[in-house]
Amino acid sequence: MKRITALIFCLVSVFVPLFHFAQAQSPLLAYGGEVRVVIPCTCTFNWWVFYAPLYPAPAPFPFVGALVITPGVTFPLAYPWFILPVPVPTTWQLGQYIPGAGICFIGVPPFCVPLPNWGHVMKAGASFPGFP
Amino acid sequence: MKTMQKLSFWKKIVLFSPLFLFFFAHTQGVFGAIVTFERDMRVGYQGEDVRALQKILNSEPKTVISLAGPGSPGQETDYFGVKTKSAVIKFQTLYLPEILSVSVDSITATGFVGPLTRLKLNALTTGVPSQNAIVATTSTTTTTTSSKLTREEKKSADFFQRLFLKQKPTFFNVSRYEASPGMEVFINGEGFLPQGNIVHIGSGYVADSVVSNEGRTLKFTVPTDVSFGKYNLYVSNKNGDSKDFFAGDFFTITNTPHNPPSIFSINPKNISRNDINKEIIITGSGFDQKNNTIYSSLGNISNLPSSGGNLIKIKLSDFPEFTKIKSIPTAIKVSFDVVIFVKTDAGGSITPSVLSLEF
What's the gap in Å between the CA of B235 and the closest CA on chain A? Predict the structure, then answer.
């Protein structure tokens, strides 16, 4: 029992400061995931991309969720033609995003409504469709 | 030394753990000295960014929060209270003319820490001039200067400058398409100034001096002298107007305005992705008898009828994008909130309603 307590204490004393350190350093966070659904944001001229699974840092386990990709802003790395001009479903992406910065409005003016998302992808690489 | 050798492995770990803690906490203080402000802040907010804000405010004699007690230099707290707001107002008064390259006659300090204020705060913490400061918040290196920007960083910087410094007003939606004289209407968009916005109803009627608290919402009252009819609606301020966004006449002034659709509830609230044909009932008001459109994060569904104008029935299989996510072996025991809006000819529900899809 004492060993478990000691182990927990050690882990907390190391990882909690590291977590805060990471938070203070950079708003760019890593993510990875498989593209499943791509919705055109018709009012803001970008893409709402739904990933399942989605591994967004700093979350320790996978989710499903969405990020926003904007042509001309998101910087495509590996196999860029699977990311822009349109992200291709069943490709996997690995990249970095800024949490809370994604803006996607769907609809037709003057009815434009927001789709919630985790953030905006700033750079990403893709796999071939169907290959992780 | 002999004592140390006698200690068991775990006892050593327990003994030295506080040293680890001290070391990492200290290094965090050193490396984390450059703080970036990533969210808007106002009275009532809490967090370490509030503490960092207070430290910046206290570092300038003209914007000191308090001379003694909580919030005073050395006693900064993580709570954004009235004193912090007062200091932010002083800060904005001091720095906003420097941030904006345009005249700021019609802009007053609000005490709300929005994008422009954050821009200046980030510039102060990173040492990068205001116009480039946002770069520092998008870069993985904390001491980026404009001369060292990579191509992707430059793109990011341009993007954020457009995002935060966009001057021209645009609007995304209006709370109602039909209104009577004297009625209050909300416009959601961006590029609104704290003061001096003008809402134009057609070319002949204006509601002027419209105030926006956070740059994204305008509330105006339809002038009482507006004639009945259909008008274009647009916003202007000293930075431009939103005419380019939508030029059609959609805003109707009438004595008997129809209310836009509104969603009260979705039943069931949670649905398994395996219940493809289970009926989902959307309850609300203002639905069209024949032609409703659902906008959602799983695609749009058009031409939906409504019985009695208050019920719309759909199924998961009606969502055009559902087939792409109905089988995901890696997604287990997670849920995804599908946001749903309803649109009719009289307007749309602009408050999102959520259907939780369980995987």
Answer: 12
